[in-house]
Amino acid sequence: MLSTVKVIPLYAVAIVLLVFTGYPFLYMLATSFKTQEKFFMDPFSLFTSIQFSNYALAFEKGLANYFLNSLIVTGVSVALTVLIASMASYPLSRLKFRFSKVLFLLFISGMMLPIHSTLIPIFILTKNMGLGDSLPALIGPYVAFSLPISIFILTQFMSELPREVEEAAEIDGCSHRRIFWNIILPMIVPALATILIYNFIHIWTEFVFALVLITSPEHMTLPLGMQKFYGELTVNVPALMAALTLASLPILLVYFLAQEKIVTGLTGGAVK
């Protein structure tokens, strides 16, 4: 009984936080189903009318193209980041060689670099490479700036893995390549899920690099498309809310599917 009384304040705080964090999304979703007339008549009501014309209007304005561009850029960038970061973290954490610590510090020093200070050099570089106004122009910077934090998380996670399994595999004749693919990778799935979701959210919502490197509408990603929607649909709030709802669904879906592994990955290595 006493333990139940003690947790009541915690549940109360959790409920308050749930209301503050969940109500904005609930309001956005409810507003997306309203007509303009219904919104201006009763802007704060929830789910008093259900109609899908706002979503159809969002697709007519090019949302599908922006959505596809974001999926391509985000998917390729996250896949390359996970692959490169895991392959780089394995020797840094499991193999002892000269200057390994220095190399690790050089990798994570990228976390201290102000990302947007590189906008002009990256713009000039992509232009000289002939990649201006294209999706590959975004993939390179996204991968480069996602690697430091990804390598840091994976290296720390791999360092806590028991070496006995690896030594047993070496006795059985496994090469380092086979150990990495068949033993290490399955053991670091929580950490991989962590960097996957972290980088997915960051790249999916990134705006400044896309604004500088992309100019044509057919190559615009979702954040640029949402800016365009805001200019065209400022008065039509329900249609704007429909576009925002669709834009936020992939983030929510990916997070809900992997939330347990995210928590495990973030706490991995905290307790030995």
Automatic annotation (TrEMBL):
It comes from the Bacteria. InterPro entries: MetI-like, MetI-like_sf. SUPFAM superfamilies: MetI-like (SSF161098). It is found in: Cell membrane. Residues 67-258 form the ABC transmembrane type-1 domain. The chain crosses the membrane at residues 6-27, 71-90, 102-125, 137-158, 179-201, 237-258. It is a multi-pass membrane protein. Keywords: Cell membrane, Membrane, Transmembrane, Transmembrane helix, Transport. It holds the Pfam family BPD_transp_1. Belongs to the binding-protein-dependent transport system permease family. This is Carbohydrate ABC transporter permease.
